[in-house]
Amino acid sequence: MGASLSLVPVLDYFARREFLAAGLRPNAATLPYPDGGAGATCTVHYWAPPGEPKLPPLLLVHGFGPRATWQWRCQVGPLSRHFHLVVPDLLGFGGSAYPSETAPPPSEATQASTLAALLDALPGMEGKRVAAAGTSYGGFVTYWLARAAGGGRVGPVVIASSDLLKTAADDRGFLKRAGEGWSGVDEILLPAEPAAMRKLIELASYRPPPRAMMPDFMLRDFIQKLFTDNRERLVHLLKGITVGTDKFQVTPISQDVLIIWGDHDQLFPLEKGFAVQRYAPTISAPVRALYFASVMTPCTHGHTDWLVLYQRCCHLQVSERHR
């Protein structure tokens, strides 16, 4: 029985239902692939309400690994009452694809350029100022989009649990927190065995489910559906990440910025949030961005200026429920 039971389609169904209930509909756009040479194209799958915006537009950018519906399922309902949401799958995730056999993997800059092209292609969105929020890897992309597009096109900006100042020393610190027996960060971030999947859940969640609720057969199913079937593509995508290298130089941006961090984040510890804070402009976040923070998760939070700290939350504060 256990071997044939899969929760992945069930979770996918409920996540999609949240999006549909929020008035979002799935769609796809074929766009030029910035790194693919002349004639190269990519496909961007996204969720958005039909028609032109009647509310201020807000772009939600997911992190590495999950598709957009899994990452933002808790937020689209409340946010859809105040914003015209655009929720894409980044290139290589969910239903979005790029020419991986003939072109290099997308960097954060490439992902950002593609999102800018998507926004210009949507009804009534060309040239319209768009607020943007990204979590984890999506925060890297959101930062790059905001910097490249400028304040007249993108802003305000919300960056959640995104270590823009990540270095090799941070990877070593992550492995130390994970404990002995791990050869590299990739072994945990792209798990191939139940032990690695369980460790990833433990590190990403403030209160992970007890072991009895994470039997090996269930974890193997998640690994197969989310990682094994897509491993070659995910490894290719990891090679495109430039944060922590000379290609990702962090400089202050002109937009209003709200930084969100879980106070128990074990992937990107809280002190990195304060370090990132120093690179943001020293101005208060606007009211709408603060409203965004209030609906991100039921976890309790406090804030100092424009750095919001979620208490009893870890790296997945956009998904965690306060218990």
TrEMBL record:
SUPFAM superfamilies: alpha/beta-Hydrolases (SSF53474). It comes from the Eukaryota. Residues 58-283 form the AB hydrolase-1 domain. Gene3D superfamilies: alpha/beta hydrolase. This is AB hydrolase-1 domain-containing protein. It comes from Urochloa decumbens.
